[in-house]
Amino acid sequence: MPGFAELVLILIVVLLIFGAGKLPAISSAAGKAIQRMRNQAIEEDDES
User: Fold this and answer.
1) Where do runs of H (alpha helix) occur along 1-48?
2) Separation between Cα atoms, residue 38 and residue 32, nearest integer Å
3) If 0-12 CB within 10 Å is exposed, 13-18 middle and 19+ buried, where does residue 14 land?
4) Which residue, among 10, 14, 34, has the nearest Cα to 24 in the 3D structure?
5) In sequence order, which residues have a C-beta less than 8 Å from that of residue 15 and are 6 or more positions away?
6) What crossing angle do the helices spanning 4-18 and 23-47 adopt, rounded to 10°?
7) One digit per residue, pLDDT tens: the chain, 48 residues?
8) CA separation (Å) from 33 to 6, 16, 43?
9) Residue among 11, 40, 36 nearest 26 (CA)
């Protein structure tokens, strides 16, 4: 698991690449993708 310094560095690199304007859209898409993966994992556990 990355530490705080690594997470800050990753955030800075993402800001430089995509710009601050696109960051909310990127984080929203990432959050939705994570939620879908969690829901899929729960559904698979229920089927087993």
Assistant:
1) 4-18, 23-47
2) 10
3) middle
4) 14
5) 23
6) 120
7) 679 999 899 988 988 998 888 888 988 999 999 999 999 988 888 876
8) 22, 23, 15
9) 11
- What is the identity of the amino acid at 20? A
Q: Please compute, for residue 47, the number of CA atoms within 13 A of its CA located in the half-sphere on the CB side.
A: 6
Q: Tokens 């087993």, residue? A: 48
Question: Residue 11 corresponds to which tokens in the numbers above?
Answer: 């955030």
Residue (of 34, 30, 13, 41) closest to 5 by Cα position: 13
- The structure's pTM equals 0.60
* Tokens encoding 28: 């929203």
